[in-house]
Amino acid sequence: MPWQQLRVRVEEALAPVVEEVLSDLGAVSVTLQDGEDQPVFQLDPGTTPIWHNTEVTALFDAGASMAEIADSLQARTGLQFEHQIILEQVEDQDWERVCMQDFKPMRFGRRVWICPSWETPPEPDAVNILLDPGLAFGTGTHPTTALCLEWLDACPLQDKVLIDYGCGSGILAIAGVLLGARQAIAIDNDPQAILATKSNRDLNAIAPSRLSVHLPGVKDHPQADVLVANILSGPLEELTPVITALVKPGGRLILSGVLSQQTESLMASYSPWFDMLPAVIRDEWVRVEGVRR
């Protein structure tokens, strides 16, 4: 069944009002997104990003009168959108299949491939991580994930204990095990990430004894030879004492999810306990490395 779509750009303060009116007018979904490529790099917990120039998109069923809806939107908000309202028809698609088509095998470093679970790995003898895209962050497409995967690929992990703090999809913990780590511990405060990591662990035929998944605060596991945390600079700084305590003396610390302008502050936060190495930058994102004293 085809759908009908209404798009309108509004200022930040008006976006919630327009969203509520469109919902009242029968929209089956309303989406807010950036109208002018304004980045939002870091959010406070529980907050929702609304951009200075926000594009509101509402989806209606095929029988809706879009001209009446547009008129009602203007009447109920008191706004004159003029030519800003765009009415379109959207053909129905198998959206799961569209997602599958967009997710292709990707190589990181010399050995690591991230492969959709429904495709045959292009190099069967490589370190192939099977992954389903889901609700948790981490498929390898973001520069910070790529930076961490490339570091793991180059690091000798045999007989090492690896902790993936803020594991998301579990991609880094899984990579660590498949690259030879004796044990990986995946930690995240998001229940969706816990489910996603366990699902991807099973997809890669890794035993729970080699890759355990926890909420923060579990203490019955060893300290890490390697700890990877790909989150954001604010939480990384707040978690400095927690993360530091999880790394054994001589252990390696890999931090990412950090913008280049945040690097100096983050390195200063960890430098009392770690010898910090020069940062690696890609597309304004940074990987920070340290060795625990």
> What is the count of DSSP helices, taking H or I runs of 4+ residues?
9
Structural class by sheet pairing and helices: alpha/beta
Mean pLDDT: 85
Residue stretches low in confidence (pLDDT < 50, at least 5 long) are 36-50, 94-100
Query: What overall geometry do the principal axes of the alpha carbons give?
Result: elongated
What value does the Rg take, in angstroms?
23 Å
Straight-line distance between termini:
62 Å
CATH topology of the largest domain: Rossmann fold
Strand content range: 25-35%
H/E series, N to C? EHEEHEHEEEHEHEHEEHHEHEEE
**Biggest β-sheet, characterized?**
8 strands, mixed
The proportion of residues forming helix, as a percent range, comes to: 25-40%
Number of domain modules = 2
Superfamily (CATH H level) name of the largest domain: Vaccinia Virus protein VP39
Number of E strands:
15
CATH architecture descriptor of the largest domain: 3-Layer(aba) Sandwich
What is the subunit arrangement here?
single chain
Please identify the top-level CATH class of the largest domain.
Alpha Beta
Key words describing this protein structure:
Rossmann fold, eight-stranded mixed sheet, alpha/beta, single chain, 293 residues, 9 helices
Describe the fold and architecture.
The chain has 293 residues and is an alpha/beta fold. The chain folds into 2 domains: 3-92, Alpha-Beta Plaits; 132-292, 3-Layer(aba) Sandwich (Rossmann fold), CATH 3.40.50. It has helices at 15-24, 66-77, 95-102, 143-154, 171-178, 191-203, 233-238, 240-245, 263-270, and strands spanning 3-11, 29-34, 53-60, 86-90, 106-108, 112-116, 127-131, 161-165, 183-187, 211-214, 224-230, 247-259, 274-276, 280-282, 285-292. Helix 1 packs across helix 2. The chain is elongated and about 65 Å long. It starts with a strand and ends with a strand. The model is unreliable at 36-50 and 94-100 (pLDDT under 50).
